[in-house]
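Data availability (excerpt). The following record was deposited with the supplementary files.
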Amino acid sequence: MSDHTDKEYGEDLDGLVPSAALDIDKGESSWESPQLPSHNKKTCLFYLATVQAFLIIYQTEVLLGTTLAICLGIAFSTSYKHKHPRVNPFSAAHIGHDYTSITSKYDLTLGSIDHWCLKGDDNNCRCEDPLEPMSKRGSKKWDSQHKENIKVAQAALMKIMASNEAGGAWDNYGGYTPDYDDLWLDGGDDDWIDGEGARFDWGDDDFTFNAWADEGWDEGDDGFGVPMEAPASGGTNEPNGIRHHNLRSLLDESEYSLDVVFLGDSITEQRQGTQMGKPVEAYTGIKEIFDKTFTKDKGGDFNGISMGIAGDTAPNLLWRVMNGEMPYGLTPKVWWVGIGVNDFSAKGCSEEVVLLGILRVVEEIQNSHPDDIIVINSILPVKRNLDGLLEHIGKHHEDVALKKKEKNLLDSEMSAKRGHIDFWPSIVSINEELSKFATKHKGVKFFNADSIFVEERDGGKYMKLDLFADPVHPNQAGHKKWNSAIKKRLHEILKE
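Predicted structure:
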């Protein structure tokens, strides 16, 4: 009987590997390596031989198993890509419908909206109807700032009408005097009582005489004045027979005539030196710069006023201009509209919904002031990446604006009211549509502020972080450069 009969499998590997490789102790093999001890070499050879034997004996099973693993890998990969498709954010943010043919607010409808929410659905957002005015009068701060804005608008109008250069406009315009509202309403200096009893409302307001002996004064709150509709030309309710189309020339005679009125959200309110009506020390310099640029008495090239409220969306601004912040008689040469960032960052609205909201505001202003110019300011960039990166360009562009390896802002550094996603593709999409709309509508201009706040460097587009105080709001230096660019554009527009 062979000497191998009582040996366990694996003790003798003759027939599986060359015999020369097994004569390690005798030093008969050239395979021997001086770096490894003899017992390590035997162990390695043992495992190699075992694997070889396994493959020889179970070659069919190994082949089938390998084939099965490959098929499962392909199936899993395909399924994963189907559930998690790689999407270009700029393509996803594209607005498919064309709104450039809109001719009035009545052409705007909700039927064409593809999805309401920024993430592609219709339910996971707090989006409002972009075509309907929406107030926040439940908030005392918002209500207070709205009243303040009305006072700003009416004070500017009173200053124009009371000026000597207007040829005694108060007497010519219905026999009014500068203190007529105070004597008429409550006998005190109330600056038009926070906007109620608007002088140019041409209709019933909170103070309406209803048969004194029976009912007395009707002091019910009607929402700070009936919406300011201009009277029909030649109507009997026009004081002293002054026609509407003559009002502009009358107002323009004054050195205090308004060149521009800024309407918007917190970025616009910064120019007033406040946030939700409360003075902010960091905004004091911003207000001073604005006044020096848009107040002729302070050395500015133009006369302008600013009316903004922090946190406002397009529907909020729409309500404001329909309820006191655009009173009849306030007729600047240019209305400068800056709104939209809160609609998608705070409310989560889709690009298309945000666009509709902005266009609704523009059409409302144009409907009331068909002879005035409306400038739509581009939505400013929103910081998400610590370095201010907005998108890759050139060879670095990878279908995504921000790579995962790039460190984003911490949640504590972002406003709790804002979504923590990359908004730049949405901003680009909305601005592109606003620009196209402006090119096809007489009296509407688009002002792209990217040249001020965005720069290209290191293979990408970046925010100029030195011009921002936080992820959203420009600082004093940012406003200064912005105002200079606006001033230059206003000179061009008014010259045209």
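Summary of structural features: The longest helix spans residues 59-83.
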